[in-house]
Amino acid sequence: METSTPRLALEIAVTSAAGAHTAQRVGADRVELCTALELGGVTPSQGLIAAAAESTGGTLPVHVLVRPRAGGFCYSDEELRTYTLELRSIAAQGVAGVVIGALDASGAINTAATTRLMAAAWEVDPGLCITFHRAIDQARDVDAAISDLIGLGVHRVLTSGQAATAHEGSAVLRHMVALADGRLEIMAGGGVRVEDIDLLAASVGVDAVHLSAKAVMAPAHRAVLPLGSADGGGHFGTDARLAAEAAAAVHTARRSLGAVV
Q1: Would you say the pTM of this structure is higher than 0.85?
Q2: How far is CA 25 from each of CA 104, 152, 188, 239, 251, rounded to the nearest angstrom?
Q3: Hey, which CATH number is domain 9-220+232-260, 3.40.50.1010, 3.40.1490.10, 3.90.180.10, 3.20.20.380?
Q4: Where residue 236 falls among pLDDT bands split at 50, 70, 90?
Q5: Which of these, 114, 135, 133, 165, lies nearest to 72 by C-alpha position?
Protein backbone atom coordinates (compact mmCIF):
# COMPACT_ATOMS: atom_id res chain seq x y z
CA MET A 1 0.00 0.00 0.00
CA GLU A 2 1.09 3.60 -0.36
CA THR A 3 3.29 4.65 2.53
CA SER A 4 1.66 8.05 3.03
CA THR A 5 -1.10 10.18 1.61
CA PRO A 6 -1.74 13.89 2.02
CA ARG A 7 -4.64 15.25 3.95
CA LEU A 8 -7.51 15.16 1.48
CA ALA A 9 -6.32 12.61 -1.07
CA LEU A 10 -7.73 12.44 -4.59
CA GLU A 11 -8.73 9.05 -5.99
CA ILE A 12 -9.96 8.73 -9.55
CA ALA A 13 -11.92 5.70 -10.71
CA VAL A 14 -10.61 4.59 -14.10
CA THR A 15 -11.40 1.79 -16.50
CA SER A 16 -8.35 1.81 -18.75
CA ALA A 17 -4.60 2.22 -18.89
CA ALA A 18 -5.17 5.58 -20.61
CA GLY A 19 -7.36 6.64 -17.69
CA ALA A 20 -4.65 5.68 -15.19
CA HIS A 21 -2.11 7.67 -17.17
CA THR A 22 -4.42 10.69 -17.20
CA ALA A 23 -4.91 10.44 -13.43
CA GLN A 24 -1.16 10.35 -12.92
CA ARG A 25 -0.62 13.31 -15.24
CA VAL A 26 -3.11 15.56 -13.43
CA GLY A 27 -1.69 14.71 -10.01
CA ALA A 28 -4.15 12.20 -8.50
CA ASP A 29 -2.89 10.36 -5.43
CA ARG A 30 -4.17 6.96 -6.54
CA VAL A 31 -6.65 5.27 -8.86
CA GLU A 32 -9.38 2.74 -8.34
CA LEU A 33 -9.27 0.44 -11.33
CA CYS A 34 -12.44 -1.34 -12.43
CA THR A 35 -14.42 -2.15 -15.52
CA ALA A 36 -18.07 -1.53 -16.46
CA LEU A 37 -18.66 1.75 -14.64
CA GLU A 38 -22.17 1.72 -16.07
CA LEU A 39 -22.84 -1.24 -13.76
CA GLY A 40 -21.22 0.40 -10.75
CA GLY A 41 -17.92 -1.31 -11.53
CA VAL A 42 -16.82 -4.95 -11.53
CA THR A 43 -13.45 -6.73 -11.37
CA PRO A 44 -11.05 -5.74 -14.17
CA SER A 45 -8.99 -8.30 -16.07
CA GLN A 46 -5.42 -9.24 -15.18
CA GLY A 47 -4.27 -7.71 -18.45
CA LEU A 48 -5.92 -4.38 -17.64
CA ILE A 49 -4.33 -4.33 -14.18
CA ALA A 50 -0.91 -4.94 -15.72
CA ALA A 51 -1.49 -2.32 -18.42
CA ALA A 52 -2.58 0.31 -15.86
CA ALA A 53 0.58 -0.23 -13.82
CA GLU A 54 2.72 -0.13 -16.96
CA SER A 55 1.09 3.09 -18.19
CA THR A 56 2.14 4.93 -15.02
CA GLY A 57 5.55 3.33 -14.66
CA GLY A 58 4.41 1.72 -11.43
CA THR A 59 4.57 5.09 -9.64
CA LEU A 60 0.85 5.69 -9.09
CA PRO A 61 -0.84 3.46 -6.49
CA VAL A 62 -3.43 1.24 -8.16
CA HIS A 63 -6.32 0.00 -6.02
CA VAL A 64 -8.37 -2.66 -7.76
CA LEU A 65 -12.10 -3.07 -7.33
CA VAL A 66 -12.81 -6.75 -6.77
CA ARG A 67 -16.51 -7.36 -7.36
CA PRO A 68 -17.36 -10.63 -9.07
CA ARG A 69 -20.73 -9.48 -10.37
CA ALA A 70 -23.13 -6.57 -10.47
CA GLY A 71 -26.46 -6.64 -8.67
CA GLY A 72 -26.10 -6.30 -4.92
CA PHE A 73 -23.57 -7.36 -2.33
CA CYS A 74 -24.96 -10.56 -0.78
CA TYR A 75 -22.92 -13.50 -2.03
CA SER A 76 -23.41 -17.25 -2.04
CA ASP A 77 -20.65 -19.60 -0.89
CA GLU A 78 -19.75 -20.31 -4.50
CA GLU A 79 -19.60 -16.60 -5.32
CA LEU A 80 -17.36 -16.03 -2.29
CA ARG A 81 -15.05 -18.75 -3.55
CA THR A 82 -14.79 -16.91 -6.87
CA TYR A 83 -14.25 -13.67 -4.94
CA THR A 84 -11.36 -15.09 -2.90
CA LEU A 85 -9.71 -16.58 -6.00
CA GLU A 86 -9.91 -13.20 -7.73
CA LEU A 87 -8.41 -11.48 -4.68
CA ARG A 88 -5.45 -13.85 -4.48
CA SER A 89 -4.75 -13.48 -8.17
CA ILE A 90 -4.93 -9.69 -8.07
CA ALA A 91 -2.87 -9.39 -4.88
CA ALA A 92 -0.11 -11.34 -6.63
CA GLN A 93 0.07 -8.64 -9.32
CA GLY A 94 1.65 -6.17 -6.91
CA VAL A 95 -1.21 -3.69 -6.64
CA ALA A 96 -1.33 -1.16 -3.80
CA GLY A 97 -4.76 -2.15 -2.54
CA VAL A 98 -8.05 -3.88 -3.15
CA VAL A 99 -11.60 -2.58 -2.87
CA ILE A 100 -14.12 -5.08 -1.50
CA GLY A 101 -17.49 -5.33 0.20
CA ALA A 102 -20.14 -7.78 1.33
CA LEU A 103 -23.44 -7.49 3.18
CA ASP A 104 -25.63 -10.13 4.74
CA ALA A 105 -29.32 -10.64 4.06
CA SER A 106 -30.28 -8.31 6.94
CA GLY A 107 -28.35 -5.40 5.45
CA ALA A 108 -25.48 -5.54 7.95
CA ILE A 109 -21.79 -5.78 7.09
CA ASN A 110 -21.11 -9.47 6.48
CA THR A 111 -18.17 -9.64 8.87
CA ALA A 112 -17.50 -13.33 8.28
CA ALA A 113 -17.34 -12.89 4.51
CA THR A 114 -15.31 -9.68 4.78
CA THR A 115 -12.83 -11.38 7.13
CA ARG A 116 -12.49 -14.22 4.63
CA LEU A 117 -11.90 -11.80 1.75
CA MET A 118 -9.33 -9.77 3.65
CA ALA A 119 -7.50 -12.93 4.73
CA ALA A 120 -7.31 -14.13 1.13
CA ALA A 121 -5.71 -10.86 0.03
CA TRP A 122 -3.34 -10.63 3.00
CA GLU A 123 -2.18 -14.24 2.58
CA VAL A 124 -0.58 -13.08 -0.66
CA ASP A 125 0.43 -9.55 0.35
CA PRO A 126 0.13 -8.54 4.03
CA GLY A 127 0.76 -4.91 3.08
CA LEU A 128 -2.30 -4.49 0.88
CA CYS A 129 -4.57 -1.57 1.69
CA ILE A 130 -8.18 -2.65 2.15
CA THR A 131 -11.00 -0.31 1.12
CA PHE A 132 -14.63 -1.24 1.79
CA HIS A 133 -16.72 0.09 -1.05
CA ARG A 134 -20.17 1.63 -1.35
CA ALA A 135 -21.92 -1.50 -0.14
CA ILE A 136 -21.93 0.51 3.10
CA ASP A 137 -24.44 2.85 1.48
CA GLN A 138 -26.94 -0.02 1.47
CA ALA A 139 -26.21 -1.00 5.09
CA ARG A 140 -29.17 -0.67 7.47
CA ASP A 141 -27.20 0.85 10.38
CA VAL A 142 -24.36 3.27 9.67
CA ASP A 143 -23.07 3.32 13.24
CA ALA A 144 -22.85 -0.47 13.41
CA ALA A 145 -21.27 -0.62 9.96
CA ILE A 146 -18.50 1.83 10.86
CA SER A 147 -17.86 -0.01 14.12
CA ASP A 148 -17.66 -3.34 12.27
CA LEU A 149 -15.21 -2.01 9.69
CA ILE A 150 -12.95 -0.56 12.36
CA GLY A 151 -13.03 -3.86 14.24
CA LEU A 152 -12.13 -5.77 11.09
CA GLY A 153 -9.07 -3.60 10.44
CA VAL A 154 -10.30 -2.09 7.18
CA HIS A 155 -8.23 0.96 6.21
CA ARG A 156 -10.74 3.03 4.26
CA VAL A 157 -14.40 3.17 3.31
CA LEU A 158 -15.85 4.67 0.14
CA THR A 159 -19.28 6.17 0.74
CA SER A 160 -21.81 8.75 -0.42
CA GLY A 161 -23.25 9.01 3.08
CA GLN A 162 -26.10 6.70 2.06
CA ALA A 163 -27.48 9.23 -0.41
CA ALA A 164 -27.65 9.46 -4.18
CA THR A 165 -24.65 11.80 -4.12
CA ALA A 166 -21.99 12.67 -1.58
CA HIS A 167 -23.25 16.26 -1.55
CA GLU A 168 -26.72 15.10 -0.52
CA GLY A 169 -25.18 12.75 2.04
CA SER A 170 -22.89 15.37 3.57
CA ALA A 171 -24.57 15.27 7.01
CA VAL A 172 -24.20 11.49 7.26
CA LEU A 173 -20.64 11.72 5.95
CA ARG A 174 -19.85 14.22 8.71
CA HIS A 175 -21.32 11.77 11.23
CA MET A 176 -19.18 8.97 9.79
CA VAL A 177 -16.04 11.09 10.13
CA ALA A 178 -16.86 11.69 13.80
CA LEU A 179 -17.57 7.99 14.40
CA ALA A 180 -14.35 6.91 12.72
CA ASP A 181 -12.30 9.39 14.76
CA GLY A 182 -9.17 8.74 12.71
CA ARG A 183 -9.38 4.95 13.00
CA LEU A 184 -10.86 4.52 9.52
CA GLU A 185 -10.43 6.81 6.52
CA ILE A 186 -13.69 8.20 5.18
CA MET A 187 -13.57 8.76 1.42
CA ALA A 188 -16.47 10.61 -0.16
CA GLY A 189 -17.62 9.16 -3.46
CA GLY A 190 -20.79 8.98 -5.49
CA GLY A 191 -21.74 11.77 -7.86
CA VAL A 192 -18.92 14.00 -6.59
CA ARG A 193 -18.61 17.16 -8.66
CA VAL A 194 -15.65 19.50 -8.74
CA GLU A 195 -17.71 22.17 -6.99
CA ASP A 196 -18.43 19.76 -4.10
CA ILE A 197 -14.81 19.25 -3.14
CA ASP A 198 -14.39 22.34 -0.98
CA LEU A 199 -17.49 21.50 1.09
CA LEU A 200 -16.45 17.87 1.53
CA ALA A 201 -12.99 18.95 2.68
CA ALA A 202 -13.66 21.97 4.85
CA SER A 203 -17.13 21.39 6.27
CA VAL A 204 -17.50 17.60 6.23
CA GLY A 205 -13.86 16.78 6.93
CA VAL A 206 -13.46 13.67 4.78
CA ASP A 207 -10.01 12.15 4.32
CA ALA A 208 -10.32 11.74 0.56
CA VAL A 209 -12.58 12.34 -2.41
CA HIS A 210 -13.30 9.82 -5.14
CA LEU A 211 -14.72 10.56 -8.55
CA SER A 212 -14.67 9.00 -11.98
CA ALA A 213 -14.32 12.22 -14.01
CA LYS A 214 -16.03 10.23 -16.71
CA ALA A 215 -17.49 10.99 -20.09
CA VAL A 216 -19.13 8.78 -22.69
CA MET A 217 -16.66 7.79 -25.37
CA ALA A 218 -18.40 7.30 -28.69
CA PRO A 219 -17.19 4.35 -30.79
CA ALA A 220 -15.39 5.01 -34.05
CA HIS A 221 -17.90 2.74 -35.74
CA ARG A 222 -21.45 2.77 -34.43
CA ALA A 223 -22.96 -0.69 -34.50
CA VAL A 224 -26.65 -1.00 -35.33
CA LEU A 225 -27.03 -4.28 -33.45
CA PRO A 226 -26.51 -4.15 -29.65
CA LEU A 227 -24.71 -7.19 -28.27
CA GLY A 228 -26.32 -7.05 -24.84
CA SER A 229 -28.85 -5.21 -22.70
CA ALA A 230 -26.24 -2.67 -21.52
CA ASP A 231 -24.60 -2.21 -24.91
CA GLY A 232 -25.56 1.30 -25.95
CA GLY A 233 -22.80 1.76 -28.48
CA GLY A 234 -20.44 3.76 -26.26
CA HIS A 235 -18.50 3.37 -23.04
CA PHE A 236 -17.33 5.49 -20.12
CA GLY A 237 -13.79 6.81 -20.14
CA THR A 238 -11.75 9.33 -18.15
CA ASP A 239 -12.26 12.96 -19.17
CA ALA A 240 -8.88 14.67 -18.89
CA ARG A 241 -10.42 18.12 -18.39
CA LEU A 242 -12.64 17.01 -15.52
CA ALA A 243 -9.78 15.09 -13.92
CA ALA A 244 -7.53 18.15 -14.07
CA GLU A 245 -10.25 20.38 -12.60
CA ALA A 246 -10.77 17.93 -9.74
CA ALA A 247 -7.05 17.82 -9.01
CA ALA A 248 -6.89 21.62 -8.98
CA ALA A 249 -9.84 21.80 -6.59
CA VAL A 250 -8.22 19.28 -4.24
CA HIS A 251 -4.94 21.22 -4.21
CA THR A 252 -6.83 24.44 -3.43
CA ALA A 253 -8.71 22.71 -0.61
CA ARG A 254 -5.46 21.35 0.80
CA ARG A 255 -4.00 24.82 0.95
CA SER A 256 -7.09 26.05 2.80
CA LEU A 257 -6.89 23.16 5.26
CA GLY A 258 -3.21 23.89 5.84
CA ALA A 259 -4.08 27.45 6.75
CA VAL A 260 -6.41 26.36 9.55
CA VAL A 261 -4.77 23.18 10.87
Answers
A1: yes
A2: 40, 34, 22, 12, 14
A3: 3.20.20.380
A4: confident
A5: 135
